[in-house]
């Protein structure tokens, strides 16, 4: 049993797992909702993954369950649109919560820690042609990217801002009466540059609030994520 599978199984049983150092972290996006009774176990997996260095887990709260009695306080219509774009790219007819997207290409519906762990391991072994670095300088973050080759189609550099931890008391809906913890709650996801990889890329973004930030280089579609980094 590899270390990632062991770690996720430990997480599913409520144990902590050590972080693994890695220069090419795997991005795991969770589409979730506070109004979804099936989501809390997967929300908890994201919290465990957030302790690691080899994974960048990001929780995107969608708004399409708000009508059933509880309005998700983190929901953003743009996250619903992102999930629908993934579905179109995959040729899928439906979207779900909880739904995970690993590396921009592999979809996992529901609470399936073994499948998730195996996909993370697979993506960790994937060749990464792009090297990212990030550094804070005063009220800015300077992002630098270089590629070992050019791309047939421009890739997209995206900046993701997220909250490390939030606790919410759910008063109505399927999770009424529960107090739930959430990790790496995405506040904003913004494309900041398109890039063909021919020359090194340098982008400066505002960091006045000093919150955690992730940078993702992704093929359009949305497609495969070919590089990622974070500053906590």
Tell me briefly what this model is.
With 232 residues, the protein is of the alpha+beta class.
Describe this structure in words.
- The chain is of the alpha+beta class and 232 residues long.
- It has one domain (3-231): 3-Layer(aba) Sandwich (Glutaredoxin), CATH 3.40.30.
- Helix content is 20%, strand content 38%.
- The protein has four helices and eleven strands.
- The strands form three sheets. The protein has a four-stranded mixed sheet with strand order 2-1-3-4, with helices on both faces.
- The longest helix has 14 residues, at 77-90.
- It starts with a helix and ends with a strand.
- The relative contact order is 0.20.
- InterPro entries: DUF1223 (IPR010634), Thioredoxin-like_sf (IPR036249).
- It comes from Rhodovulum bhavnagarense.
- This is Secreted protein.
- Residues 1-21 form the signal peptide.
- Keywords: Signal.
Gyration radius from CA atoms, angstroms: 17 Å
**Broad structural category:** alpha+beta
Q: What's the number of domains?
A: 1
Q: Roughly what is the average pLDDT, rounded to an integer?
A: 91
Largest sheet: 4 strands, mixed
What is the CATH domain class? Alpha Beta
Distance linking N and C termini: 30 Å
Taken as a percent bin, the fraction of beta residues is: 35-45%
By DSSP, the count of extended strands is 11
Count of discrete alpha- or pi-helical segments spanning 4 or more residues:
4
Coarse shape: globular
Low-confidence stretches: 12-22
Named CATH topology: Glutaredoxin
Judging by the overall fold, what is the CATH architecture?
3-Layer(aba) Sandwich
Q: Strand arrangement, largest sheet?
A: 2-1-3-4
Q: What letter string, H or E per element, gives the SSE order?
A: HEHEHEEHEEEEEEE
CATH superfamily: Glutaredoxin
Helical content stands at: 10-25%
């Amino acid at each position: 049993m590899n270390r990632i599978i062991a770690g996720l199984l430990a997480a599913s049983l409520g144990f902590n797992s050590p972080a693994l150092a890695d220069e090419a972290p795997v991005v795991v996006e969770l589409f979730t909702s506070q109004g979804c009774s099936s989501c809390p176990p997967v929300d908890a997996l994201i919290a465990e993954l957030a302790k690691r260095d080899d994974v960048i887990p990001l929780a995107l709260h969608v708004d399409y369950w708000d009508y059933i009695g509880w309005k998700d306080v983190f929901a953003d219509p743009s996250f619903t649109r992102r999930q629908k774009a993934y579905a179109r790219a995959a040729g899928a007819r439906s979207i779900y919560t909880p739904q995970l997207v690993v590396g921009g290409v592999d979809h996992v519906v529901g609470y399936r820690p073994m499948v998730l762990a195996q996909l993370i391991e697979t993506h960790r072994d994937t060749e990464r042609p792009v090297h990212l670095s990030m550094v804070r300088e005063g009220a800015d973050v300077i992002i630098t990217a270089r590629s070992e080759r050019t791309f047939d189609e421009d890739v997209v550099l995206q900046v993701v801002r997220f909250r490390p931890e939030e606790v919410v008391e759910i008063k109505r809906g399927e999770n009424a009466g529960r107090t739930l913890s959430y990790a790496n709650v995405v506040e904003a996801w913004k494309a900041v540059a398109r890039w063909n990889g021919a020359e090194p890329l340098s982008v400066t973004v505002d960091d006045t609030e000093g919150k955690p930030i992730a940078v993702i280089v992704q093929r359009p579609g949305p497609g495969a994520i070919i590089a990622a980094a974070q500053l906590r």
